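Methods: holo model generation. Sequences were used as deposited, without trimming of termini or removal of tags, and paired with ligand SMILES retrieved from the corresponding compound records. Each pair was processed once, and we did not select among multiple samples. The sequence and adenosine-5'-triphosphate SMILES for this entry were:
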Amino acid sequence: MALLKVNKLSKVFGGLRAVSNFNMDIAPGELIGLIGPNGAGKTTVFNLLTGVYVPTEGSIVFDDKSVAGLKPYQITQRGIARTFQNIRLFSDLTVLDNVKIAYHFHVKYGILESVLRIGRYMEGEAEVERRAIRFLEIFNLADKKDEIAKNLPYGEQRRLEIARALAAQPKLLLLDEPAAGMNPQETQQLMEMIRWIRKEFDLTILLIEHDMSLVMGVCERIYVLDYGSVIAQGTPLEIKNNPRVIEAYLGEEVD
Ligand SMILES: Nc1ncnc2c1ncn2[C@@H]1O[C@H](COP(=O)(O)OP(=O)(O)OP(=O)(O)O)[C@@H](O)[C@H]1O
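and the model returned the structure below.
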């Protein structure tokens, strides 16, 4: 059974059909790529899946329930978390606080308890801190926990953004161009990390990426968007050899 089922999804901005009749089925545990030329509609699909935009038409069913039209925080609580093409951290907060904030979605205590800092609040806070540090350790950021997020080098900010998304304990993780701005060695490490977190956290992952070495290296299936519509889907090998995809996007570059 599908974890995510998207049916005939469309988004119209003024006269522009940014996403048109988009269908996608993702089974639990899959690692899927979404590729296509600039402006093809990839980020708009992510924005529809995460409640940033309300669909013009179509349905989004996640974990057997409709999530179309819900607010972003409601969708996070249902189990979909994301990173952004342009990193969006709480740049003036510490590394640790960036991860702790994501945990607060999942720790429940009353206002009185939190104001008085008693009972479950204090236990909750200690637990949140412990778990947040564990995430930072996984992402090799624990020794930077007290640094201000904006002072981290670019590659570490990207890792922190993924750590924060995972701290919300999603079932589905959406990564928007995770390798952007990375050198080949960092991209290679990122690939290994993506494979590892999927296994470790029992995740399903959908990623947008222009770096074909990463997409072809980690994804099991790939969807190709062009002008808002899916023009192909299949295994990396099928996509590499698809004449329509080569013409619209890949050119002669992929070997
Ligand atoms: N809020 C908006 N208002 C109007 N048009 C928008 C809006 N968001 C996106 N678009 C348009 O929708 C189309 C798809 O944009 P989108 O950002 O989804 O493409 P993309 O495939 O993610 O591109 P890239 O690879 O460059 O990030 C573009 O023509 C874009 O200008």
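The mean pLDDT is 89.
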